Amino acid sequence: MTQSTARALRLHIGLFGRRNVGKSSLLNAITRQSVSIVSSYAGTTTDPVEKPMELQPLGPVVFIDTAGLDDEGALGAQRIEKSKLVFERCDIACIICGEEGWGSFEQALFETFEKRSLPTIIIFNKQDLSLADGDFSRGEKVPVIYTSVQTDTEATGLEQLREALVQQAPEDVLQPPSILGDLLPAGGLVVFVVPIDMEAPKGRLIMPQVQAIRDTLDNDAMSLVVKERELAPALDRLKIPPDLVVTDSQSFLKVSADVPDTIPLTSFSILMARFKGDLQTLADGARAIENLRAGDRVLIAESCSHHPIGEDIGRVKIPRWLTQYVGGKLSIEHAQGRTFPEDLSEFKLVIHCGSCTFNRRSMLNRICTCRGAGVPITNYGMAIAYSLGIFPRALRCFGLT
Ligand SMILES: Nc1nc2c(ncn2[C@@H]2O[C@H](COP(=O)(O)OP(=O)(O)OP(=O)(O)O)[C@@H](O)[C@H]2O)c(=O)[nH]1
Ligand SMILES: [Mg+2]
Predict the structure, then answer these.
(1) Residue 4: is its pLDDT beyond 60?
(2) Which of 26, 77, 103, 207 is the most interior residue, by most CB within 10 Å?
(3) φ, ψ for residue 104 (rounded to 5)?
(4) Residue from 278, 220, 246 nearest 397 by CA
(5) Domain boundaries, position 188
(6) Looking at the predicted structure, is the pLDDT value of residue 3 above 50?
(7) Ligand 1 mutation pick, 19, 20, 63, 97, max ligand atoms within 8 A of CB
(8) Nearest-CA residue for atom 21 of ligand 1
(9) Which protein residues are within 6 Å of ligand 1, measured from CB?
(10) Count of CB atoms within 10 A of residue 205's CB?
């Protein structure tokens, strides 16, 4: 995806500040590469340096490292001009402070961005030197973070930077293109498997099902909607096999047995992992199931606050499948709606629902919170696929295994 995403679709993040505050060091720390030259000489970076990358959970971004905006002399003035041109193509501006902290220089820069309605993040770098913030008052509604990115030492504050970027990203950047349209060829056919059981709402379909059907129509593709029992006869009636089968995760086992291995298969919840969250992070989270041991604490979080009925997926089925996989009893806790524990450090894994009632920013925020706490996070569909042993198959259609 990094290569194929057009530059214009990437979130552009500009790094600005005085010379020597650590703009280039920050770029290198977040990319984990030596992209920009770092030195104690003030004025090391001259022309803007662009680095496109995949930044989970945001997706494709490009960081732009710039020359210090307090550069001096005739050449310095030209460099400042070049850096200022970067203001034009930024979606988010980071103001980085170093030894001198916040001063009138940073304040003026902040006001410039404010006038441009450019979302801003304030970064106090070089925290390892125990610096004071300087003349800074926290009146503004702008994320303020503290980092330390000296080469050869472990960087701190980068997870908070990710979180701030999610918070400041414009709405359209956070919208993924489609639920499943890109997985289908033009005129393609998808079979949806929708169990009608006790939990199915009377007389209607649930939101991810409706959204997936609508997305298929929007992408000029065809859909066939069946219950589990009708799946095999439906496939038998088709002259050409479908391009994709999407099932309710709870029916994964039966459906995977009925659908030949050559036909791509996934679940509504896994589609939602990409649409509302971040496919790669949530897939990595599912792999943490491998390391679970009896007694480990697992948080199961659900964004809607429905009243659990029957064999509730979050309360009964997932705990049962996980326990079977781990081979011992886990200590499972639940969170519903907007409540989410502040301290996640004791959890070995967070399993989140598809999050159809949250917007993407809320789900990405939760992903960042978990990342910040060093706790893997996955979602219902991924966790079910993993514990039932069909994880690689369920991710194959996305090019992931
Ligand atoms: N102690 C400490 N030093 C840092 C940190 N970040 C950067 N430095 C040092 O600060 C100096 C300047 O770092 P750069 O990353 O080159 O700063 P810059 O803002 O890109 O500087 P110019 O390109 O000259 O504008 C280097 O000696 C870095 O090693 C940090 O978090 N802590
Ligand atoms: Mg630099």
Answers:
(1) no
(2) 26
(3) -65, -30
(4) 246
(5) 181-271
(6) no
(7) 20
(8) 20
(9) 19-25, 38-40, 42-45, 67-68, 125-126, 128-129, 148-151
(10) 16
Q: Please give the model's pTM, rounded to 2 decimal places.
A: 0.80
Ligand 1 site-directed mutation target among 38, 97, 109, most atoms within 8 Å of CB: 38
Amino acid 163 reads E
- Tens digit of each residue's pLDDT (9 = 90 or more) over 306-359: 666 666 888 899 999 999 999 999 999 999 888 889 899 999 999 999 887 888
Of 139, 154, 174, which closes a domain?
174
Final residue of a structural domain among 174, 195, 230: 174
Reported as a pLDDT band with limits 50, 70 and 90, residue 2 is very low
Q: Give the number of other CB atoms < 10 A from CB of residue 74.
A: 6
Question: Of all protein residues, whose CA lies closest to atom 27 belonging to ligand 1?
Answer: 40
Q: What is the pLDDT of residues 105-146, one digit of tens each?
A: 999 999 999 998 899 999 999 999 988 887 787 666 899 999
Residue 2 lies in a domain: no
Does residue 390 carry a pLDDT above 90?
yes
**113 and 38: one domain?**
yes
d(CA 183, CA 214): 14
- The atom number, within ligand 1, closest to the CA of 125 reads 31
Question: Is position 399 within any domain?
Answer: no
